[in-house]
Amino acid sequence: MEFHETKKITERAVLAGVHTGALDELSDTTDSSIAELERLTETAGAIVAGVLVQNRPVIENATYLGEGKLSELKEACTSLEADIVIFDDELTPMQIRNIENELGIRVIDRSMLILDIFARHAVTKEGKLQVELAQLKYMLPRLTGKGIALSRLGGGIGTRGPGETKLETDKRHIRAKIHKLQSELKEIKAHRDLLRTSKSRKEGLVVALAGYTNAGKSTLLNTLTGSDVLAENKLFATLDPTVRGITLPDGRNVFLVDTVGFISKLPHHLIEAFKSTLEEVTFADAILNVVDASSDEYEKHIKVVNSILSSLKANEKPTICVFNKIDLKETETVLPKEVEGCEFVVEISAKKEYNTDKLVELIGEILPGKKEKVNLLIPYNRGGVLSMLHSEHNVLEENYQPEGIRVSVMLDSKTYNELREYRCD
Q: What CA–CA distance (Å, rounded) separates 225 from 182?
């Protein structure tokens, strides 16, 4: 038997976009969005061989780029020996078909690139199902754009025959698969909702770590909880929600949930596909908006996160803006002391464990049920009260005196009011 050595082929990619000068910078192709597209491409395992950006007031409906620029892109792909072209915006099925016919190589857009990265990083069953569902939904309207062999719908000579049957069979198969995946995800969601509602509120409060991708959420989770969640300097290193617990100084138990990072130009259908993952934010008692303080684009990142939180109807929740990576920030950059939609702003370095104690203090301030130290004198004939304090609260000190048992305990305002008669100074 003859053996052949197989090598992993690294694709060479050319990036393309159109800068329209739109007032909405979050949806336009800019230097920062192209830089981000480069990082996404590298995260997906490809090499960026070149970049082409056209300045024009509107995107060309048929080919995205203008005719002359498309020819220029074709020449660049040939000279750079490119295997693939990645566009900074989501392309229509017609645009993909026309561009592929002109260039003669594979064409994908930002959405497909993000889905490819999601597919690499999904670990749980739910995460994998969500990726597959999103990919199929993306693929379905684009089947007619995948080469001449599948583009036989329509009418007239040369458009009828087995090609049409094959395409319709493919579409029916994909629709059936989509329905099956939706049913499986619905069952998983129902099970998780049941677990969530069955848990007593006494088990702990929930704080969601939201933020732009690669802001350091996983590193922060590790620092605050002493865990070892995967934390890489890559986009979308975390896809599936991770939950870890901490105990605040006043005894309250808090669950920290690390969520998938947000990113600009994230299409609505991708947000919909991952809603069951992102909904952890909507069920949280408070949110940490983790921001990379060392990024020149931090203001834009805050806007993107706020926009997505708003779409999830989670923008009204108590929020702390956490400027992370403060140790990497340029010294002359002055960060704002107030951020729209945030009750508190704090500067930290999760990696260096700088100012994280201040962050924990602010988490305690923003969450409901804040506890303070009080002194109570419990008569000996009220042993049930003492048992309740030990089982439900953090008793700091206990002394037996002639009149009763003197305890120092951390109580929230509601419990304190119920036990006010036992107060002693």
A: 34
